[in-house]
TrEMBL record:
Name the UniProt record assigns to this protein: Putative glycosyltransferase
Entry's Gene Ontology molecular function annotations: transferase activity
UniProt entry keywords in alphabetical sequence: Transferase
Keyword Transferase tagged: yes
Source organism: viral metagenome
């Protein structure tokens, strides 16, 4: 086992999924290190929720890494986190996300570009019409935060706040005015200013519930095609948690 101590922070993003689905996703992940799980407790503002999770994480002296796992994310491949750690170990000053897809149609992969020019910011989805090679770790301009691995030193080097949703200053800097700038974009911009590289590991391919799962069609088959032959581990754990909850409910 590694000497690292991983803190997994679960955030509530949907009420549409069975509550045991998230627990099953967390449990089946291969971690290869000691792990602590913390829960954000249904804070409506996602920026404040992530901020609170970082603050809790920093109160654990031996904690070395924080992994955000939102409850609308599913990881059919149990080893996806191991590759992210391997890449991070080989590339200091890196922050690594798994690969999943945007909640809004046409559900572009969240491999985001982000440029700053003349005091304005512009971000986009350059891979929305491109085939993604599945065994690469790609450098990006911004990372989503739904399955995001961050070393402790990031929060020790960068002053708070780390996550702010709808920051008025960033909203005003958008070249294309629209929705509030997400807390993940806020974090990405700040991390880059302090010298960190942002990456998406395409080997860590995930599903995103929006309110239906979107992502790699092969992962869809892995997750849903057959209880007995496909993804037996995650299905077995899901059923175990469901049965426990059902018994308690009775």
């Amino acid at each position: 086992m590694s000497q690292r101590l991983l803190v997994i922070a679960g955030l509530h993003r949907t009420e549409a999924l069975p509550h045991w689905q998230h627990a099953a996703t967390i449990r089946v992940l291969k971690k290869n290190c000691e792990t602590i799980y913390i829960d954000e407790g249904h804070i409506f503002d996602v920026g404040k929720a992530r901020q609170q999770m970082v603050e809790v994480f920093l109160t654990i002296p031996k904690a070395t890494h924080l992994l955000f796992v939102d409850d609308d994310i599913a990881a059919p491949k149990a080893d996806c986190l191991l590759g992210m750690f391997q890449f991070m170990d080989a590339h200091p000053a890196s922050i690594v996300s798994g690969l999943y897809y945007n909640k809004n149609p046409p559900h572009a992969p969240l491999l985001m570009s982000l440029t700053e020019r003349d005091g304005k910011i512009l971000f986009g989805f350059p891979y929305k019409d491109r085939i993604i090679e599945k065994n690469l770790v790609l450098k990006v301009g911004a990372v989503p935060a739904g399955f995001l691995l961050i070393p402790r030193e990031v929060f020790e080097k960068i002053p708070p706040p780390w996550f702010v949703y709808g920051d008025p200053e960033l909203n005003a800097k958008q070249i294309v005015q629209g929705e509030n700038v997400g807390e993940d974009i806020y974090f990405s911009i700040k991390a880059r200013k302090y010298g960190y590289d942002l990456w998406v590991d395409t080997r860590a391919s995930l599903l995103h519930y929006v309110p239906m799962f979107v992502g790699d069609p092969e992962l869809m088959k892995l997750m849903f095609r057959g209880v007995d032959t496909v993804a037996p581990q995650i299905r077995a754990v899901s059923n175990e948690y469901k049965n426990r909850i059902d018994k308690i409910g009775k």
